[in-house]
Specification:
The protein is α+β, with helices and mostly antiparallel strands. It has two domains: 2-63 and 167-334, Aminopeptidase (3-Layer(aba) Sandwich), CATH 3.40.630.10; 65-152, Peptidase M42, domain 2 (Elongation Factor Tu (Ef-tu), domain 3), CATH 2.40.30.40. It contains nine helices and 17 strands. Strands 1, 2, 3, 10, 11, 12, 13, 14, 15, 16 and 17 form an eleven-stranded mixed sheet that branches. Strands 5-4-9-6-7-8 form a six-stranded antiparallel sheet, with no helix packed on it. Strand 4 (65-71) and strand 5 (77-82) form a beta hairpin. Helix 1 packs antiparallel against helix 5 (169-184) and helix 5 crosses helix 9 (318-334).
Amino acid sequence: MLLEKLCNAFGVSGCETEVRDIIKEEIISYADEISVDSMGNLFAKKNGKSHDKTVMVSCHTDEVGFIISGITKEGYLEFKAVGGIDTRVIISKKVLIGKDKIKGIIGIKAVHLTTKSERESVPKVKDLYIDIGAKDEEDAKKYVNLGDYAVFDTKYEELGKTSIKAKAIDDRAGCYILSKLIEEVQPEYDTVFCFCTQEEVGLRGATIAAYKIQPDIALVVEATTCSESPDVNEHEHVTKLNGGAAVTFMDRTTIVDDDFSKWLYNTAKGNNIPVQYKTVVAGGNDAGIIHKTAEGIKTASVSVPCRYLHSPAGIASKKDIEATYNICKLFLEKIKL
């Protein structure tokens, strides 16, 4: 299954080759043109019924993770976070390191050795380490190099009848949706599907991609926060699982064109596609840089709600993924420019 393969793939920001190769193999028979740029962005063009306008549909291939920054004399690996990660959720989690996917565990000083103040504070990344079972520094260097990337060792699973659990749902859900669109949709206008790199570290791939394409309109397909857990007030839920695709009207990087966001929402409603608004101004995505490119590009985003974003395991709804796909399909088939 493509979504499972994408979520399980190794693809920290700056190390997205495995993800890109999976996507390229999947779409190569359906795209009219395929190319990769110096940033590792994958572009797949599909010719439309009309050639006088260009549409950009974008997602990102990278995930949050870690990079190895040191090896102690005892053989423990020091690391830095790549992307926004809450250290509270990574302690004792399994990781895979480097091209050989060496197994390791994120460790911290044992609780019975900590002070009261240490137990009552959130640990910093510098307080953690990765244990690969090496006996010393020389032994560790047989398996791991400085600059190697590490990802959470979490396998895709189905939960109940409607949900999935996986790492990197942000934004492999978007990669999955774009891959399906390339295969199944005949767009109204020439459309460039962009699988962008390094979103999690500053929207870097999309910066280059948007300047390359300079489309007439752009749609970003993402995963976004879903926080309707018991300890969160309802007005802070952002989105709801099984509530449908999430249309953004504003986040921390973009104020979306009002007509565009309403068109997406109302078109979904009119076609009985489950849809909701992202109700909290939080986060951001590649739309934040795309809409400011050149003389400005009308840009909106539609997202799959995901619980526990940027953690070892997120949860998303298969129904919400399907709804997001269906909104994107209608956009490509019905938008008039």
